[in-house]
Design goal:
This protein has about 70 residues and is of the alpha+beta class. It has a single domain, classed as Alpha-Beta Plaits, CATH 3.30.70.100. It is built from two helices and four strands; from the N terminus they run βαββαβ. Strands 2-3-1-4 form a four-stranded antiparallel β-sheet. The longest helix is centred in the first third of the chain and has 12 residues. It is globular and about 35 Å long. The structure holds dioxo(di-mu-sulfide)dimolybdenum. Dioxo(di-mu-sulfide)dimolybdenum binds next to helix 1. The site of dioxo(di-mu-sulfide)dimolybdenum has 4 residues, from helix 1.
């Protein structure tokens, strides 16, 4: 089954920032899709919970240089 996580991502200033977040998340195992909205500081991620969890995704966003908080 599939789950959705929404993160607040702080510090993105342009669409290339959003692109690097998207790329980093999509490279993780267990990700179905990721969409990052730079204007609203949001990342929505569809993932398979038997392979990856929200905290691992959150850390991958932090690793590319942004502060990420799980919203729901
Ligand atoms: Mo855009 Mo983001 O020039 O760190 S890539 S600001």
């Amino acid at each position: 089954s599939e789950a959705k996580a929404v993160f607040s991502v702080i510090g993105m200033k342009c669409s290339a920032c959003a692109g690097s977040v998207e790329k980093a998340v999509k490279r993780l195992p267990g990700i179905r899709d990721a969409a990052v909205d730079v204007l609203n500081n949001r990342a929505q991620v569809l993932f398979y919970p038997s392979f990856i969890n929200e905290e691992t995704i959150r850390e991958a966003i932090e690793d590319v240089g942004f502060d990420a908080t799980l919203l729901k």
